[in-house]
Amino acid sequence: MQNTDSPSTLSSPPTKRKGHPRIVLLSIALLGIGSFAFYQQQGKTQQSGPGNGRNAAAQRGVTVTVATVQTGDIGNYINALGYVTPVYTVTVRSRVDGELLSVKYREGEFVHQGDILAELDPRLFQAQLLQAEGQYERDKAALDQAYIDLTRYKEAYARNAIPKQTLDIQQATVHQDEGTLKIDQAQIQTAQVNLQYCKLTCAV
Length: 204
Fold this sequence. Notes:
It is built from four helices and three strands, in the order ααββααβ. It is mainly α.
């Protein structure tokens, strides 16, 4: 009877496959390389923005044209939203109080020396001028009468018809009327100046 337990006839145990660990390691390496490449591509995408686009456009070059130089009024127009800030600002005020009748300029418009900017109601100052002129005429008539009386008093005093005191009083009356007349002239000039201030003009 043949012995079946001999080493030559016994089947050997199955050997372990050594390919599986290598496949796993290779998969992990490929995954790492893919992740690294993905993050590198993401970083380049984030760095490329509007500024980089402009740099790229600048690197491509700008078209340059040539034109003949000309003299004249050159207008540069920019359509944009913003604020206009003047270099110099001037506050225009009237020297007299009154109702504003009209404005002779528009905001931002160029004005020249002597141009009328605005007008106030002049009727009040015209009435004051008329009143001052009337008072001047009245006081001037009183002064003329004082001169006539002074001449008579001098003649009477020369004939010893009146005392010296009467002549002195009349002389003082003449001086008083002369002072009153100067006050009236000053009031007339003041009314004339106020009337001129009713028109606001550009001084510079």
